[in-house]
Amino acid sequence: MKGIYIHIPFCAYKCNYCDFSTMTKQYQRIDEYFDLLQKEINMYNNPNDRIDTIYIGGGTPNLVDSKYIEKTYNVIDSCFNLQLKEFTIECNPEFVTKEKIENYKKVGIDRISLGVQSFNDQYNKFLGRQHTVSDVFKSFEIIKGYIDNISIDLIFGFPNQTLKSLDNDLYYIRKLNPNHISWYNMILEPGTKFYKNYKDINRNDDIEYEMYMKICNGLEKYKHYEISNFAKDKFESIHNKIYWKDENYYGFGLSSSGYLNQQRYTNEFFYPDYKKKILNNEKPISFSEKI
After folding, report:
1. pLDDT average, residue stretch 127-156
2. Among 57, 64, 75, which residue's Cα sits nearest to residue 28?
């Protein structure tokens, strides 16, 4: 099995917990970025190399026009032997539209990872998100009209969250009944707003353990197949399992990581460095190591 991860860095806003390489409100760079991404992918051109999965993450991939997703897919299709078992794109609820989801399906995308984070509007505002629970339900219904395989992403263990609040999240999960759930324990990463504000907070590991067990017990109808991932039968993420099984994957785009023939590499984190290397016909790798 071999996969491709593609990073789309554009965002309308920066979440308070996010340490990813993103470009907030820098829409004037979208055309240029996708041209550079195309050049990077072409540097790895290998028509005999079979690819089983594609995962488009971010950033906020569904913020950009779907024509860019189609353009990127066409480049990949011309450079590799695509035998796709799974094709995922991450979406923020407030940017989901029927037109975009319909176009994703035409390209071959068959799995959506929806960034919910919390089913509590006040918590989402605290996290720096701009969608509401109502947006989640609207976007979920739009997606279901075209693509059945939907995963939702949630966070637990963030500052000031209560154990009881998980009951609300579990209630809404039962209402939506998604095929897959990723529920991550928040890490306070250096450089984020939360790290600046809460780096000295006395986090209670016992409470976070109780939260984790409440989540595991509340999702008993799902298979708990990874630390933070739960799936219905036959809906485990094929792409994510490539990482866990020590199999190969390409990483394309700003700050992406790849793993090929026991060599792990990471692309440049800052856009000017990424751009400079590609324009010099260099792979935009900032670091690599033999595993």
Report:
1. 98
2. 64
Q: How much is the average pLDDT of 202-220? A: 94
Residue 202 has pLDDT above 80, yes or no: no
pLDDT value of residue 203: 81
Residues of the chain with pLDDT > 70: what percent? 100
Label the pairing between strands 149-156 and 111-117: parallel
Place of tokens 């969608």: 131
Burial classification of residue 246, based on how many CB atoms lie within 10 Å of its CB (0-12 exposed, 13-18 middle, 19 or more buried): exposed
Which of 179, 93, 186 has its CA nearest to residue 132? 93
Q: 264: helix, coil or strand?
A: strand
Q: Measured between alpha carbons, how far is 140 from 203 in angstroms, rounded to an integer?
A: 33
What are the residues whose beta carbons fall under 8 Å from the beta carbon of 72, sequence distance 6 or more?
A: 6, 34, 37, 38, 41, 56
Based on its alpha-carbon atoms, the radius of gyration of the chain, rounded to whole angstroms, reads 19
- Is pTM, for the whole model, over 0.85? yes
Helix (H) or strand (E) segment spanning residue 276: helix 271-279
Give the ranges where 19-164 is alpha helix by DSSP (H): 30-43, 66-79, 98-107, 121-127, 133-144
